[in-house]
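Re: weekly structure request thread

Next one in the queue (336 aa):
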Amino acid sequence: MLPDDRPLRYRLLAAVALVVVLPFGFIYAFVAVVNHLLLPLLECLGYGPYHGRVYVDPLVTALVVFGGLAAQVWFGPSTVLSSIGARRVDAGEYPSLEASVTRLAHQAGIEPPEVAVTHNETPNAAAVRGPTGASVVVTTGLLERLDERELEAVLAHEVSHLRNRDATVMTVAWLLPTITYYLALVAAYVLYGIFRVLGSGGSSGRNEGLAKAVVVLVVTAVVTLAVSAMFWAASVLVHRVLSRYREYAADRGAASLTGDPAALATALEALDDAMPETPDRDLRALDGGAEALYVAPLEGRAFTDAELVSTDVFPDTHPPTERRIERLREMAGELS
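Done, posted below.
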C-alpha cells in the first residue's frame, strides 16, 4: 500500500474547488459584460431601448455547471481514450501487460484498472478514471521501446496516479480550459475575418446599419476573446496547482511500488530521446488536449510543422524531464 500523500491531497482539494468555482465565474462574467457593455452599446447605436437586464437564475447556472461536470466525469475518460485511438484490450491479448498492471494495483491497494492500448509509435502512457472504472493506457511504441524493468516502472507511475486520485481530477479539469481556449480561438478568427474584409474595402459603402453591425460584432468578439482568455488562464491554474507536484508524487509512488527508481529514470530518458524520432502523424494522434495525463509530455521540438494543440491549451503540465530523472537517480542512490 502506498503511503498517503497529504500535500497532494490538499492540492487536489484546491483543484476541485477551482474546477467548481471557475465555470460559475465564467458564466456570470459574460452576464456582467452583456448588461454593462453590450446592451448600453446597442442603445447608444440606436437599438432598443432595452428594459431590464439579462438575468441567469443561480439554480439554472448550478444545474448547467454541475451537469457539465457530471457529464465530464462520466464521459471524459471514454472521450480521452477515443481521442487518442485507444482500445481496451480483450482478456489474454496482452497477458504480461495485464498481469503487471494487476499486480501493481494490488500492491497500491486499488482495484485493478482495465488495460487499453493504442497503436502509435510514440512511446507514452496515461491513466484515466471515471465512475465506471479506471484504465491504464499504453502505446505500442512504449511496449516496443522499453525493456521489462522500464515498462514496469512506467506502469507503476500510472497506477500511482490512480491511487492518488489525481487522474480523476485532471480528467474533469480538462473541460473548462478546452472550452475557453477554443472559444477565444473562434473570437480571434472572427476578428481576423472582419479586419480582412475591412482591409479589402468590402464595407466601403455608406451603409449605416452595416457599420453599426460591424461595431457590435467587433466589440462582442473582443469581449469574448478577453473573457475567454482570462478564464483560460485562471483554469490553467488548476493544472499548475497539481501538475508538477502530481508527477513528482507519481514518480515517488512508482519507486515505492517497484523499489527501482533507476528504472523509471531510464524509461523517462528513453521516452524523451524518442520524441524527435517519432513520425508526426503518430505524435499528432496523441495531441489534442490530454497532455496533462501522459507520463511524458509531448514537446514542440518533436514536430516539424504546426504547433502543438496540447501545449497551447495546457502549457507546462509536467516538470522538466531532466529534473524528474535527477530526482529519481538521487532516490536510487539513497537505496543503494
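DSSP finds twelve helices and four strands in the chain. The longest strand covers residues 133-139.
Next request, please.
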